[in-house]
Amino acid sequence: MCGLVAMVGKKAVSYDLYDALTLLQHRGQDAAGMMTCDGDKLHLRKENGLVRDVFSQDQMDTLKGSMGIAHVRYPTAGTASSAEAQPMYVNSPFGICMAHNGNLTNAESLNEDLFRSDRRHINTSSDSEVLLNVFAHELQDVSGLRLQPEEVFEAVKRVHKRAIGAYAVVALITGYGIVGFRDPNGIRPIVLGERQGPSGSDYMIASESVALGVLGFNLIDDIGPGEAVYIETNGKVHRQQCAENVSWNPCIFEHVYLARPDSIIDGVSVYKARLKMGEKLADKILRLHPDNDIDVIIPIPDTSTTAALPMAHRLGVKYREGLVKNRYVGRTFIMPGQEERHKSVRRKLNTVELEFRGKNVLLVDDSIVRGTTSRQIVQMARDAGATKVYLASAAPPVRFPNVYGIDMPAANEFVAHDQSIDEIAEYIGVDWLIYRDLEDLQSCAMGINPRIERFDCSIFDGHYVTGGVDDWYLNRIERQRNDSAKEKLEAERRGVIELHNHA
Questions:
Q1: For residues 95 and 89, is the Cβ–Cβ distance under 8 A?
Q2: Secondary structure of 420-468 in HEC code, one letter for each residue
Q3: Whole-number Å distance between alpha carbons of 431 and 362
Q4: Residues of the chain with pLDDT > 90: what percent?
Q5: DSSP code of 223?
Q6: Of the candidates 206, 247, 179, the residue with the CA atom closest to the CA atom of residue 25
Q7: What does the pLDDT read at residue 302?
Q8: DSSP label at 17?
Q9: Interatomic CA distance for residues 205 and 193, integer angstroms
Q10: What is the per-residue DSSP string for 271-338?
Q11: Strand 191-197 versus strand 237-241 pairing type
C-alpha cells in the first residue's frame, strides 16, 4: 500500500503535491518523495519519514517546476531502506521518473529479463524499479527523437504484456509530460482530476479522490483497468485503452481499511460502503444472537467508526467512543515488526473507563489480522471494568497472504490460520466473536458501479485474479514477510543509521 500523486499545472506544483501527500499519508508512513520538472531540469527530494519531516521549507523551495510526481511509501516488496523511497529515476530515454503503488508477482523473472535481454541493471530489491525499467526499455524501443502520445501508449501496451500483478503508476517524462496507468485488472486505485483557473486547467492524478477534492480539483474519472492517461506539459490530455483483456477487480480491502472514508474509488463511496458494512453486520448479530445483552457499542478507531454507527442504530443500543486515539502514532498495521506493533497499541489507544465499567461492551473493528492488537484492546476493556466483551469484525477472517501491494504477514501469522471462530475468540479473550460474511462484504460495494465484475478478495478466499500465484511463490513471500525477517531488516537499518551518525 502506497500513495501517489502527479500534477501538470500552469505554475509551480510542489506545494500542491506536498498537500496531496499529506492527504494520502495514511497510505504510507515509511518514506516520502517528490520529483519536479522545470524545463529540462529535474529536482528530487526523498527520504524515510513522514511527509512533514521529509520536506523542509528550504527543500520545498528547491523543487521548482510546473510538473511533478510524489509518493508516500510503506515497504511491501524490498526493504525499508531510503534507497527504495520513490520516485525512482532512469536517464534513458528522455529521463523518466516513476512512482508505483502495488506489487508485481513476476518481478523476479522480469528482473532477469531486464539483465539478460534489455541490458538494464536493477540496483535495489524494489519491484517499482523493475517496472520503471520495463517501461523505459519499451518507450526507448518505440519512440523517435520527439516523443508522441501514440508512442507513450504503445510503451504502456508492451508493459501490460510483460508485467503481472497490481500496479497503479505515475511517471514523469522530462520535458514532455505525465503518464498514469493501471493494471488490466484494476486492483489498486488511481483517479484523474481537473482544476480550472484563469490561465487554464491544472491536472492531477492521485491514488484517492480525497487528494483532488481538498485541493479544488474536480474528479473527472477513475483511470480504468488497462487504461493510460498522458498529459502533456501544455495541458493537453490523451486517454487510451492499452490492454487487450481487462476486467474490474478492485481490492475490497481499500473499502474495509486502506482508503479514507471521504474518498470515492471506482465510483463507490468508501463512506457509504462502510455504512452498509455496519448495517449488514448488525443483521448477522441479530440472526446469531437475537437475545443479546449488549449495553454499548464502541468502535476501535478510526476505520471502524463509520460501520459502528449504523450497527448501534439497528441494534438499538448506545454508541460511545470509549477508546481515545493518539493521532500522532502511526497505524499499527504497518509497523515494521511485532514488538513495535505490541508497544504501539498502548501508546496509541486509551480507555474512557466510565464507558466500560459494569457494561457489556461490543467492540467493532474493521478487520482482524494477527489478533495480537485485538487481544490487547480486549484486555484494556476488561481492565477498564467491562463485565463482558464482544467483538465484531467488519471483514471476514483473513486467511491468505496479499500479493498485490499490502504487506500482510505470512499466512501462519494470521490468527485465523487453521483456527475456528471459537478458537480465535478464546485466543483474543472475548465472550463471543462475529465476522462478516464475504458475500455481504462484496454486496456493500457491488451494484453502485456496474463495471465492477468482482472484487479482489484474495486475502479472504485465496483467489488471485492474475493467476500464477502458486505454493512456491507464497512460500517465498512468507520467508520475506514473517516477523523474524522484518526484525532482521529493521536491525540492519538501525545499524546503518548508527554507523551514519558516528561517521
A1: yes
A2: CHHHHHHHHCCCEEEECCHHHHHHCCCCCCCCECCCECHHHHCCCCCCC
A3: 10
A4: 80
A5: P
A6: 206
A7: 86
A8: H
A9: 6
A10: HHHHHHHHHHHHHHHHHH-TT----EEEE-TTTTHHHHHHHHHHHT-EE---EEE-TTS--GGG-SSH
A11: unpaired
Buried b (16+ CB within 10 A) or exposed e, 418-445: ebeeeebbeebbbbbbbbbebebbbebb
Q: Does 2 qualify as catalytic in the annotation?
A: yes
User: What H or E segment, with its residue span, contains residue 227?
Assistant: strand 227-232
Contact partners, residue 269, CB within 8 Å, separation at least 6:
448
Annotated active-site residue in 2, 37, 97, 457: 2
**DSSP 3-state of 38:** strand
In terms of DSSP H, where are the helices of 336-389?
338-348, 372-383
Contacts of 455 (CB under 8 A, 6+ apart): 249, 250, 251, 252, 442, 445, 446
More confident residue, 418 or 69: 69
- The whole-angstrom distance between residue 167's C-alpha and the CA centroid of its chain comes to 11
Q: Is the peptide bond before 221 cis (omega within 30 degrees of 0)?
A: no
- Percent with pLDDT over 70 in the chain: 90
* pLDDT tens digit sequence for 260-319: 999 999 999 999 999 999 999 999 999 999 999 999 999 999 899 999 999 999 999 999
More confident residue, 338 or 458: 458
Domain regions of the chain by residue span: 3-247, 275-444+458-488
Q: DSSP character for 1?
A: -
CB 448 within 8 A of CB 268: yes
Q: Look up the CATH number of domain 275-444+458-488.
A: 3.40.50.2020
Q: Which of 28, 84, 64, 30 is nearest to 207 (CA)?
A: 28
Q: Cβ of 216: how many Cβ atoms within 10 Å?
A: 13
Residue 250 preceded by cis peptide, ω within 30: no
Burial of 470 per CB tally in 10 Å (0-12, 13-18, 19+): exposed
Instruction: Name 138's Cβ contacts closer than 8 Å, sequence gap at least 6.
Output: 154, 155, 158, 159, 162
Q: Which three cell numbers stand for residue 166?
A: 497490481
Question: Whats the size of the chain, residue-wise?
Answer: 503
Write down the pTM of the prediction: 0.91
Q: Is 198 left (phi over 0), alpha (psi -120 to 50) or beta?
A: alpha
Domains 3-247 and 275-444+458-488 share a fold: no
Cell numbers at 254, concatenated: 481499500
Please tell me the distance from the alpha carbon of residue 464 to that of residue 166, in angstroms, as a whole number: 11
> Going by CATH, does the domain composed of 3-247 fall within 3.60.20.10?
yes
For residue 362, which amino acid is it?
L
Q: Is 240 exposed, middle or buried (0-12, 13-18, 19+ CB in 10 A)?
A: middle
